Amino acid sequence: AFSCGTIGGILFAKIMNLFLDEKINPLIGSAGVSAVPMAARISHHLGQQANPNNFLLPHAMGPNVAGVIGSAVIAGVFISLVA
């Protein structure tokens, strides 16, 4: 599930970059899984390896928290379907 979420986030960011004037870093898409705060930290760490001036942590926490909220909503939907 984490692999699919990470790959989906990166691909979605790359597709969005085709249509945007101001490009976004695809590493932000990889932070969209609900593993708080490790997914955001990994995105930040990989961004700093590529360019030491990158500071992605605050930008990566947004999709990271959105992944948590999405997981909670889906869990509620699943519970309502079972109950």
From TrEMBL:
<dbReference type="GO" id="GO:0005886">
    <property type="term" value="C:plasma membrane"/>
</dbReference>
<dbReference type="GO" id="GO:0016829">
    <property type="term" value="F:lyase activity"/>
</dbReference>
<keyword id="KW-1133">Transmembrane helix</keyword>
<keyword id="KW-1278">Translocase</keyword>
<keyword id="KW-0472">Membrane</keyword>
<dbReference type="GO" id="GO:0006814">
    <property type="term" value="P:sodium ion transport"/>
</dbReference>
<keyword id="KW-1003">Cell membrane</keyword>
<dbReference type="Pfam" id="PF03977">
    <property type="entry name" value="OAD_beta"/>
</dbReference>
<dbReference type="InterPro" id="IPR005661">
    <property type="entry name" value="OadB_MmdB"/>
</dbReference>
<protein>
    <recommendedName>
        <fullName>Glutaconyl-CoA decarboxylase subunit beta</fullName>
    </recommendedName>
</protein>
<feature type="transmembrane region" description="Helical">
    <location>
        <begin position="61"/>
        <end position="82"/>
    </location>
</feature>
<keyword id="KW-0812">Transmembrane</keyword>
